[in-house]
Specification:
By secondary structure, the chain is mainly β. Helices cover 0% and strands 43% of the residues. It contains no helices and 40 strands. A 9-stranded antiparallel β-sheet has the order 21-22-29-24-27-35-34-33-32, with no helix packed on it. Strands 9, 11, 13, 14, 15, 17, 19 and 20 form an 8-stranded mixed β-sheet that branches. A hairpin with a 2-residue loop joins strand 4 (78-84) and strand 5 (87-92).
């Protein structure tokens, strides 16, 4: 029998299982094998040995299972993300992205107790139109004659709220009208007028006003049966007290004056300072940094309080002998989705010679820079008309003995990666998970990354509520920190923070993002598009 050497022009059909052993009629039968191991079929027809593996780096947590996520911008700019428990690490060109060790260090970057190490570089005058903050417990509000209202969740709890007027009303005080939004149990409120004694209420002038049982929202009138004689030369206090036995009352208060013929010109005042229950003056807050306790994680955070025209800024000078080498600053911005602050780094206080203002949004960030001299100055700046927080500020590689991996803090834990979904568009990768708000990963360089909350524009929404008698009443049609009160229903839950809410009073609807759930009937929100004709 003659020997035959049939042409085997291709061998790239891969591996066929035993059940295909007799399928000689199968088109790819001649190009397949029963066992193809450690080989890669080529589209040209042949096979090649698969490449081997090499050790690059250890996973951050040896006792936990990380996940590798491809981040491919192009064939020349491709990365591998090590998604570990609470962080991302980055790999490129067969190696891990690292930062050299440095002796530079950020002090008090977690703000657990105070602002030690940080300097207030805010601009603008302080405490003009000062707003009370939710949960404030106060005894006195010191006033000077100026303009209009006070607002805030004022927890009375059987303490006093005093208004110090340094210029008296023109005429005798007849009535004080207080607008109250109930936010806790009913309470009994009484108003008194006192002389001033070294910055505190002194001798009571006249008799008490009528005690008002506050058990609903609306305007409440405190009347004096005998008008206290308050002259223009007198500095005095109007003090509101909760006389309820259990002291559970709390309210949101706005004060004006009524001298018998509608709202008159009295009590036109702006807060100049706040005293706590011990009589100590609380530092001015407008455009000032301060320590705030975040209810989300019970840790301290740097609060940058802005008014929309001036700048709230905190700065720290950092010394190092490792000038001329790359440093990476890592930090977190806490706020509503879409809120932004700026970070700048300079050779002088307030300077931006090293890193000009870089706008960063709510989320987690690593920012690379190279200082050429010591010290350098790190500054966080807020120009918005609201308070935005900064936390977990550190330099990667600080105090280390060798180069350290670039790590970006993320909210995802080991168990979350099985249900985490992602999709990439150029330098941005979007992440979705049923337990977290959508985030997006942004690349600006090998060592500069951000994972920020996605700021949706006007949607998506649930079905519109058309039930008769169920409405939403905003306290203002624009601005940050407005209240939205539900009438006839209780739609809000704690998980609503970060959600969008849409109001359609008439015409084009406006929308806002919920920043705080006060109660099932009330939330605070930042308006993103004005509520037309509300």
């Amino acid at each position: 029998m003659p020997r035959v050497n049939p042409l085997q022009s291709a061998f790239n059909a891969g591996e066929l299982g035993p059940r295909m052993a007799a399928r000689v009629d199968f088109a790819k039968y001649q190009n397949a094998g029963s066992r193809v191991e450690n080989m890669i079929p080529l589209p040209q027809g042949g096979l090649m040995r698969r490449p081997g593996t090499r050790y690059v780096a250890a996973a951050r947590d040896h006792d936990k299972r990380p996940r590798l996520i491809p981040f491919e911008f192009s064939t020349e700019q491709a990365y591998v993300l090590e998604a570990c428990d609470g962080c991302f690490r980055f790999f490129r060109n067969k190696g891990q992205i690292v930062v050299p060790a440095t002796d530079a260090a950020i002090s008090n970057g977690t703000f657990d107790a105070d602002l030690t190490g940080w300097d207030d570089r805010s601009t603008g005058s302080a405490a003009i139109g000062h707003d009370l903050l939710a949960g404030d417990r106060i005894d006195t509000l010191q006033f000077s004659q100026a303009v209009s209202q006070i607002w805030g969740d004022v927890s009375l709890n059987r303490s006093n709220i005093g208004l110090k007027l340094t210029t008296a009303l023109s005429g005798d005080v007849a009535r004080a009208v207080v607008s109250i939004v109930q936010s806790n149990a009913p309470f009994n409120a009484v108003a008194r007028i006192y002389t001033d004694s070294s910055g505190s209420p002194g001798v009571q002038v006249g008799v008490d006003s009528a005690t008002v049982n506050v058990n609903a929202t609306g305007l409440f009138t405190f009347e004096w049966s005998a008008k206290p004689n308050v002259t223009a030369a007198t500095t005095y206090w109007v003090v509101f007290s909760d006389t309820t036995a259990d002291g559970t009352g709390s309210a949101e208060i706005s004060l004006c004056a009524d001298q018998g013929s509608g709202f008159a010109t009295g009590f036109n005042d702006t807060i100049t300072s706040i005293a706590d229950g011990s009589g100590a003056i609380i530092p001015d807050r407008d455009l000032r940094t301060r320590v705030d306790i975040e209810t989300a994680n019970s840790n301290g955070a740097l609060a940058l309080e802005g008014n929309g025209s001036d700048v709230a800024a905190a700065e720290q000078d950092v010394t190092t002998t490792n000038t001329g080498q790359e440093h990476v600053l890592r930090f977190r911005v806490i706020g509503a989705a879409g809120d932004t602050i700026k970070v700048r780094i300079g050779n002088t206080t307030g300077g931006d010679q090293v890193l000009p203002d870089r706008e960063v949004a709510t989320g987690f960030h690593s920012v690379a820079f190279t200082p050429e001299m010591s010290p350098f100055y790190v500054q966080f700046r807020n120009e918005a008309n609201k308070t935005i927080h900064v936390d977990d500020v550190a330099l990667i590689g600080s105090g280390a003995g060798s180069a350290m991996p670039v790590e970006l803090t993320v909210p995802y834990l080991e168990a979350d990666y099985t249900t985490l979904k992602w999709a990439q568009s150029a330098d941005v990768m979007y992440f979705a998970h049923p337990d977290y708000a959508p985030h997006k990963l942004e690349r600006r360089g090998n060592t500069t990354w951000s994972l920020v909350e996605v700021a949706f524009a006007d949607g998506p929404y649930l079905d519109e509520n058309t039930v008769s008698g169920q409405t939403l009443d905003p306290s203002a049609v624009s601005g940050n920190g407005i209240t939205i009160t539900a009438v006839g229903h209780s739609p809000f839950v704690d998980g609503d923070v970060g959600r969008l809410i849409r109001l359609r009073p008439s015409g084009e609807p406006g929308y806002a993002i919920i920043t705080e759930v006060v109660s099932p009937e009330q939330v605070r929100a930042d308006v993103k598009r004005v509520f037309a004709n509300a």
